[in-house]
Amino acid sequence: MTDLCAELMHAQLEMDRKGFGELLSREERVAVLTGLPPGVAAPAAEPPGDDSVTKENPLAPASATSASTSSAGAQGIGAAESPPAKEPPGNDQLTMLELALWLAAAVGQMSPWTAMGAFASAFKAAHGGSILLELNTAYFVPALPTLMFSMAMVPFIDRWLGHQRGFALRVIVCQAIISGSVMLFPSYAAQGGKALPIAVSVVIGIFGGLGYGSIFAFNGFWPTRAAAVFSLGLFLPGFLFIALHAIVGFEATFPPTKENKDAHWYFGGAAGFLGLAAFLGLLFGPRGTAICAEKDAQAAARASAGSAKRDSAGVELIGMSEASDPEATLSSSGAPKHETGGPRIVRKGSAADRENRNIALRAAWNVVWPSLLSIFISIFAIVCITSFFTAAPSPNPSLPATLFFVKNGCDFLGKALTLLPPLIRSQWQLVLASAVRFVPLPLFFLHVFTPVLGRNDVFLIALVAASAVISGYLNTSCFQIAAKTVNAEQRPAAKLLVNLSFQTSLLASIALSFTIMATA
């Protein structure tokens, strides 16, 4: 039950140069998490004004004037990477309360959906081996497009309501709906049948995607350390459910008792509401209020400047020729440059505007396609595997939940391994690692659907564990290398291509999974 929403949010952090990919040494990466100075020479202080309030939202187009992005030029496939400019580690100065609230907010985001995955064994007993595939489909198909839509619409909504009210309204409504749906699950389980968990998955997908995008956008306004804690917290609910099941003896007797089932769903819903409270504490706290006030002022300034650049017919000035290179016809992003001085006037939505966007996409694709291929392979493989946890034959009725917890923990371990100096440094190394990562997929299906490899739960658990570790490490490496390979001008197009890679990989894995389930 890989949460691709968490993966997509992580990808956005890395693509906007706020992830661990910017920090090249283990000491720097650990310093971001601990807040302590690294065991190296102290880096130069940040320029005045680059504090937590004035940092750019990582979901917005990157500023071409940013020192941290303009230094990262376009690189060829497999080219050596020059060290990018980076924010000094350990310089974020967040309080322990703020870090705890971000951790709780991340747990609250993921707990409702994690509750569905952690209930896999009971779902299989009640609804058959295809239930996890159907739940994945019901959740991911609406969740990822909704998340991307939410991230894109955040600036427009907050232009009307203001950032603080806009964030509060969206998150309160969305988080209350998904948390309440999980908490009320026991009340309708008896008469809901198979349609109930599928309907709850759709609800979590739609409203969870909207809520994820809003919370993630707000987190993007905070220092890098908040983003690091938030990203790690997204994978914490699985461990909390492991502890809960161990305490109440959920798998000790099967099927689990009504009391244990109720405790499972109440815990998932309560964690969601606790995360909502934590987010509101951050939003309406001193730093959150200052951030929102600053962003409102910036939005007003941009609106005022934008109105001055448009004539009454809606024509926008979108570029200036470079005096230093008047003969050039293409920018580094691949878009046409101007042959004469002065502003270039292009109507939004016109044929010229569409052509410029297509050129930018082609230029970004030519540079970053190996990373996109690697992302596609990695997401495709892990979704196919997790969708069949409930289809694996075993005398142990709690095997699906065991596989879910093993996958969750080992995926987290793979991401934690990126704290070490990177093993994968080029796109060609990434492609090779992706090919190796694909090997567990046919082995898994051979074990599930044929007796060729025998019926051994230990082998299956080990296979899932290895696959998850590789997936966690490889996914993170994909995002980091893709972010370093493109320059500032190409980054918006590259982010769109990463989103499309996620989406097509998900749809392809679901289509293959249903085909296998129907023919097996």
UniProtKB/TrEMBL annotation:
GO terms for cellular component: plasma membrane. The keyword Transmembrane helix applies. It is a multi-pass membrane protein. InterPro entries: Eqnu_transpt. PANTHER family: EQUILIBRATIVE NUCLEOSIDE TRANSPORTER, EQUILIBRATIVE NUCLEOSIDE TRANSPORTER 4. The lineage of its organism: Eukaryota, Sar, Stramenopiles, Bigyra, Opalozoa. Belongs to the SLC29A/ENT transporter (TC 2.A.57) family. Residues 60-82 have a biased composition (Low complexity). Keywords: Membrane, Transmembrane, Transmembrane helix, Transport. It is found in: Membrane. The keyword Membrane applies. It comes from Cafeteria roenbergensis (Marine flagellate). GO terms for molecular function: nucleoside transmembrane transporter activity. Residues 37-91, 323-349 are annotated as: Disordered. The chain crosses the membrane at residues 99-119, 139-157, 169-189, 195-215, 227-248, 263-285, 367-389, 458-476, 496-518. This is Nucleoside transporter.
